[in-house]
Amino acid sequence: MGNLTGKVAIVAGGTRGAGRGIAIQLGEAGATVYVTGRTTNNHTSPMQRSETIEQTAALVSQAGGCGIAVKTDHTKEKQVKSLFQRIEHEQGQLDILVNDIWGGDPLTEWGKTIGDHDLSDGLQLLQQAVQSHIITSHYAIPLLKKAPQGIMIEITDGTDYSYRGNFYYSLAKISNIHMAQAMATDLKEDSIIALAVTPGFLRSEAMLDLFQVTEDNWQDGVKSDKHFIASETPFYIGKAIRHLATDPDVGRFSGKTLSTWQLSDIYNFTDRDGSKPHWGNYYHKHIK
């Protein structure tokens, strides 16, 4: 892998899960990483999780980069505008934007149709997972245009446009995919690359808690869901994004939607335990 020393990245929604894994890996490559989110050492978001942006920023610095935590609600335009003004003032540049803003788990009512789903929760989910990405991209673009090659990465779920089991969840994740496609076309003349990346069955902190396991005994989670055996850690998608960010030929992926398992085949990297989870193969063999 290449080196990101001297590069500036923002991981929007880097408090935990995939965002944290990505931020750490960019830091390990030497980048300065702005970590944003709503949960800080002094404030807990509606997600009611203990992980904080300060913790993630510290892990970035421990990995070899420079982690900077900035409390930001990306649905609030003034906060997002202020964030990028700060980055411009402190760094004068931005090379990588990772849009991983989510917070939709408590707002998704699985098993309910659009007519039965709580409307306010559904609309809030779209505000957090789609509108926030638009606002963030809008204010990031002027800085990304100054980079020799700006990279925008949308974190999504799935690689196609098939229904994902819930109207609002599906609409949000498919919107992220199309945003990457649209921005790749819109910004081609500005030398900005845009793409989307999906993890497989992500073994996040929240998922470990849900199945009442830790990373040390995570395989016991199959008692709750047999498909958990094919899960992957946030480290895996972190590696995927790090490889993309340091690939001098990353432009060949602009407009595309890629997966961790595809990228592990392309770049030949493994998860933290040395395995190469391939959710695509597992899904087609055991679920579809």
TrEMBL record:
It comes from Virgibacillus salarius. This is SDR family NAD(P)-dependent oxidoreductase. InterPro entries: NAD(P)-bd_dom_sf (IPR036291), SDR_fam (IPR002347).
